[in-house]
Design a protein that fits this description.
The chain contains eleven helices and two strands; from the N terminus they run βααβααααααααα. The protein has 312 residues and is an all-alpha fold.
């Protein structure tokens, strides 16, 4: 007798390992990744907030991205670490719903911010004389608020729709966190297609953003290749290519996770894809956006000197 949704009080998440030793190894590995993401995004957020020279649209959106990355990775990894440490798989019904609403919120808002960042680069390189007008402080604040608002709206709609479905396939989730496609696998087949319709609409919106980003970068690369200065071309490519790499990884893995047919039910594939879109970007974004950025490196150096001075 399979439980229906009204009788489910908790879900069982995917165990990352069978043996206790491997579980502890996964705990320390996830802890290292989580601390690296916290440190990297925390440093970028602090550097942008504290250094007045970084109070520009590009770094304002980078600050938003870092905050969303912190939220995104803090929604999934702590519970996975706790389960690995305490040798359990349980998550409460309310905890699962909270995980989904926060994760979809941060993920959707992050994709909107990445889209806005491509527009920022497009205006900076292709329409530099209009940069101050098109990306003034009020316009930037409005775009950032719209990104966070869109993320919240999408999260509420997706979560409400997912948990309104009757669940009649048990309570075992084939993922290390509560993910909409995995909850949908537990739903009754006749109710499944209602939620899929909403996911398809979200994916179409995401694809529209991706097309906008690609078109922006085509225009950017055309403008960059016409630049007479090799140094100018190098600087433009160094700020644009990392962003394009992040967006491509993010979009492709989310599409695979959410549009993968139900017939393909490989736990290893699902786990790999989930790690690629939920853990890798928040951890690597600080490195990608700062390793070749002189302004960020200078701000971090000043921040470190200030911290060392205060500790003396």
């Amino acid at each position: 007798q399979m439980p229906n949704s009204s009788s489910i009080s908790e879900f069982l998440l995917l165990a990352l390992a069978d043996t206790r030793q491997l579980q502890l190894l996964h705990f320390w590995l996830l802890l290292g990744i989580y601390l690296a993401a916290l440190l990297g995004n925390g440093l970028i957020s602090t550097a942008v907030a504290c250094d007045h020279r970084l109070h520009t649209p590009m770094y304002f959106f980078l600050l938003n991205l870092a905050l969303l990355d912190l939220g995104c990775i803090s929604t999934t990894l702590p519970k996975a670490m706790a389960n690995a440490l305490w040798h359990t798989r349980h998550i409460s019904y309310a905890g699962c719903a909270a995980q989904i609403v926060f994760f979809v919120f941060f993920l959707s808002a992050e994709y909107c911010i990445l889209t806005i960042m491509s527009y920022d680069r497009y205006v900076a390189i292709c329409k530099p004389l209009h940069y101050g007008t098109l990306l003034g402080s009020r316009a930037c604040a409005t775009m950032a608020a719209a990104a966070w608002g869109t993320g919240l709206l999408n999260a509420v709609l997706q979560t409400a729709n997912t948990f309104s479905l009757p669940l009649c396939q048990g309570n075992a989730v084939d993922q290390f966190f509560c993910e909409i496609p995995q909850i949908l696998k537990l739903s009754c087949s006749d109710a499944y297609f209602r939620e899929v319709g909403l996911i398809v609409l979200s994916v179409l919106a995401m694809f529209g953003c991706f097309v906008f980003i690609v078109v922006s970068y085509v225009q950017i690369f055309r403008a960059v290749l016409r630049m007479p200065s090799e140094q100018g071309r190098h600087k433009a490519f160094s700020t644009c290519l990392p962003h394009l790499a992040v967006v491509s990884l993010f979009a492709s893995t989310v599409l695979v996770a959410y549009l993968k047919p139900r017939s393909i039910s490989s736990p290893f594939l699902g786990l790999t894809v989930a790690l690629l879109y939920s853990v890798v970007p928040p951890t690597l974004n600080p490195i990608i956006y700062s390793v070749r950025n002189k302004e960020i490196k200078h701000a971090l150096r000043k921040l470190l000197q200030c911290a060392l001075f205060l500790l003396q």
